Amino acid sequence: LVAKCSAPHSTPRNSGNHKPRDCSDVQDDGNNQNGVYSVFPTHDPDGFMVYCDMTTDGGGWTVIQRREDGSVGFFRGWEAYKEGFGKTTGEHWLVTLLMVLNEDGMMNITHLNINLRIDMADFDNATAFAHYSEFSVGRDSVNPEEDGYPLNVEGYSGTAGDSLLKHSGMRFTTKDRDQDQSENNCASYYQGAWWYRNCHTSNLNGQYLSGGHASYADGVEWSSWTGWQAESSQSSHQFVHLVQHILVTSATCSENVLFNRT
């Protein structure tokens, strides 16, 4: 997942303080190499590290989720997803991603129209992407966490097919917090954590399964592109992701955000 803001921040940087607030500021400061950078959002003057994608679709994106080699387990509970885990240089779920996207922190997308981009590759090096012109979490919530961080997505374009719209309106479910519409806990049943309905057409935090597997729909799934099950690592029709990261960008930036802008 990556994010960037396509309009200027509403509040300009203080002329006496040139610390970048997001990957867009990092890019504006003349950095054009992919890598880890320190950002200093308005709410967090001490700053923290994020991975900036400076090559995809104009650059200035903040990676907020990445799967690439199965080195990090994503079958985790609520607090882990709330606080973030993994390494910024590799597989990770950005620290406080759900808070980032919902509360008065580095990025309050309650009042923003955020674009979401998901890039995927399989073991045969085929690639695809999905882009959503509107993305929000907890947009109408007074207390997003109590409301379960409900997802909203609209405006699909891309080459991977739309496997996220079904999840729009759903709350985030983990193995220890069941907020889906299934009789079972979808996170437990499909070994992930996501905005499940009953249960999913995408499962990007599912198991990282290398090649063929007998289980059904519990891997890193984007059903319109991967199908539900990778029967063979040599199959030309069914896939398991090798590399996948998610990018986010804002179309209307009415307040300071962490993520970048073009």
Offer a few descriptive terms.
262 residues; mainly beta; Gamma Fibrinogen, Chain A, domain 1; ten-stranded antiparallel β-sheet; two-stranded antiparallel sheet
Topology:
Elements: E1 2-5, H1 23-28, E2 35-39, E3 48-53, E4 61-67, H2 78-83, E5 85-86, E6 92-93, H3 97-100, E7 113-122, E8 127-137, E9 151-158, H4 186-189, E10 202-203, E11 221-222, H5 223-226, E12 241-252
What does this structure look like?
It is a single chain. A hairpin with a 5-residue loop joins strand 5 and strand 6. It is globular and about 50 Å long. Helix content is 9%, strand content 27%. The chain is built from five helices and twelve strands. The chain starts with a strand and ends in a 10-residue tail after the last strand. The protein has one domain (23-226, 236-250): Gamma Fibrinogen, chain A, domain 1 (Gamma Fibrinogen, Chain A, domain 1, Alpha-Beta Complex), CATH 3.90.215.
